[in-house]
Write a structure and sequence with these properties.
Layout (H helix, E strand, L loop, with lengths): L1 H10 L9 H17 L4 H17 L8 H16 L15 E6 L6 H14 L4 E5 L7 H12 L3 E2 L7 H5 L5 H14 L4 E5 L8 H14 L3 E7 L6 H12 L3 E5 L8 H10 L3 E5 L7 E3 L2 H9 L2 H13 L2 H12 L6 H13 L3 H7 L7 H6 L3 H11 L3 H5 L6 H11 L3 H24 L11
Parallel strand pairs: 1-4, 1-5, 2-3, 2-4, 5-6, 6-7
Antiparallel strand pairs: 7-8
Helix pairs in contact: 1-2, 2-3, 3-4, 4-12, 5-6, 8-9, 10-11, 15-18, 18-20, 20-21
This protein binds guanosine-5'-diphosphate (GDP) and magnesium ion.
Length: 449
């Protein structure tokens, strides 16, 4: 998975303050491979990685994230952006029925979607009606009627009550049926009307012309382009053809229950600039949901854990505290025991330390250290520092033998633990000085590790 591969790449990046161009390129190369594996179209991958590379090279140093996490964050943000940012809702008509037209290749999942969408709308208090305009395939009208029955939604068909045999030789004009269907919905006061159309196995001029004419006849509020997410590299050309043909307003990804990693979503959204609105995830009427760009981004990236970690780290990172530390560095002020304690508390805020670190790429390398790490250690440090006087905290040099004994008594620990803490503090202080000279605070060291 991408997760594993990035872990391998990041192994070399750990401990670095700022990423070099070579580091960024190595990471971007892995991301490129992952996107291609997820079936994102080649030109889309190229453009995408170009943008990520640019942003990664220009990224500000972050207090909360290490450089590799920063790249993942950038990748994730860019994915969400391309996929439409926020979930886009259906635009309802101001008066009369909201007209939704479905378009897409044969087998994409339009008719199934008509049922899912109408059931979903009904549950939200709408009263949808379906219109069967696929008069090309013998079974298409019957299929929509069955779907309508299941969703308990009326279906407008060319020959009401027509028998199966009659429909095998359909004579109706799809454009006329669409027009009549929308008119019927208006008269019967349905507030939403969903128009199912015919598709072909490949993009076809006649089919597109028919779809265009239907669009012109019914003036839809939304034209939803339904695309099979397993379609792979063909997604781009199909989407571009439909966009040119019917100028769709939104995308529906179907068959997301399959193995597809969702690359088609990215390709189609990227080349058309249209938002993905819904996801279809099975053959059943309820296998349908609003599309969430952020969830799809993490599916494509396949790095859910890392993304969660990044979010937690950013959330718990106290910006004021970080700014205060940065200023201290800039002013070349001394790093005190109070600062040391504040750092430890920041780390604790990040939640269960061990669990967090275990999620990090490359964690197996430090697993042994992690296993020795004890969160209670932070409590002990806190107790010890709290037993010091304010003066002792800023000038630890004055902490002599008798002071150490007093601090140990006050915090309920052995004198050797006070000694150990003071030693580790001295080391951390040295490290902070070094970092300050390097002009890069980064993640203030994890004392004690
Ligand atoms: P249309 O030609 O675009 O109207 O496509 P259909 O709605 O007839 O769907 C074609 C086939 O795909 C049918 O067998 C559906 O049951 C199936 N299908 C549609 N949507 C999904 C989906 O989200 N997941 C799965 N697994 N199958 C689906
Ligand atoms: Mg159909």
């Amino acid at each position: 998975s991408l997760s594993d591969r990035l872990t391998a790449t990041f192994k070399n990046l750990r401990g670095k303050g700022r990423l070099t161009e070579a580091d960024v390129d190595a990471t971007v190369r892995e991301i490129r491979r992952a996107l291609l594996d997820a079936d994102v179209a080649v030109p889309v991958v190229r453009e995408f990685t170009g943008r990520v590379r640019e942003r990664a090279l220009g990224a500000e140093v972050s207090g909360a994230l290490n450089p590799s996490q920063q790249i993942v964050k950038i990748v994730n943000e860019e994915l969400v952006e391309i996929l439409g940012g926020e979930t886009r809702r259906i635009r309802l008509a101001k008066s009369g029925p909201t007209v939704i037209m479905l378009a897409g290749l044969q087998g994409a999942g339009k008719t199934t979607l008509a049922g899912k969408l109408s059931k979903w709308l009904k549950a939200q208090g709408h009263s949808p009606m379906l219109v069967a305009c696929d008069l090309q395939r013998p079974n298409a009208v019957t299929q929509l009627q069955i779907v309508g029955q299941r969703a308990k939604v009326p279906v407008f068909a060319p020959h009401p009550g027509a028998t199966y045999t009659e429909l095998e030789h359909p004579a109706g004009d799809p454009v006329e049926v669409a027009r009549a269907g929308v008119e019927e919905a208006r008269q019967k006061l349905h507030d939403v009307v969903i128009v199912d159309t015919a598709g072909r196995l490949g993009v076809d001029a006649d089919m597109m012309e028919q779809a265009r004419q239907i669009r012109r006849a019914i003036v839809p509020n939304e034209v939803l382009f339904v695309i099979d997410s397993m379609i792979g590299q063909d997604a781009v050309n199909t989407a571009l053809a439909f966009d040119e043909g019917v100028n769709f307003t939104g995308i529906v990804l179907s068959k997301l229950d399959g193995d597809a990693r969702g690359g088609a979503a990215l390709s189609v959204a990227s080349v058309t600039g249209k938002p993905v609105m819904f996801a279809s995830t099975g053959e059943g009427l309820d296998d349908f949901e609003l599309f969430h760009p952020d969830r799809m981004a993490s599916r494509i990236l396949d790095m859910g854990d890392v993304l969660t970690l990044i979010e937690q780290a950013e959330k718990s990172w106290d910006k004021d505290e970080a700014a205060r530390m940065a200023k201290k560095f800039a002013d070349q002020e001394d790093f005190t025991l109070d600062d040391f304690l504040a750092q430890m508390q920041q780390i604790r805020n990040m939640g269960s330390m061990k669990k967090m670190l275990m999620m990090m790429p490359g964690a197996q390398n430090i697993r042994q250290q992690l296993e020795q790490f004890d969160e209670r250690e932070i409590d002990r440090v806190e107790a010890i520092v709290r037993s010091m006087t304010p003066h002792e905290r800023v000038a630890p040099k004055i902490i002599n033998g008798s002071r150490r004994a007093r601090i140990a008594r006050g915090s309920g620990v052995h004198v050797s633990e006070v000694n150990g803490l003071l030693e580790r503090f001295a080391q951390a202080q040295k490290m902070m000085k070094k970092m300050a000279q390097g002009g890069m605070p980064g993640m203030p060291g994890m004392p004690g590790m």
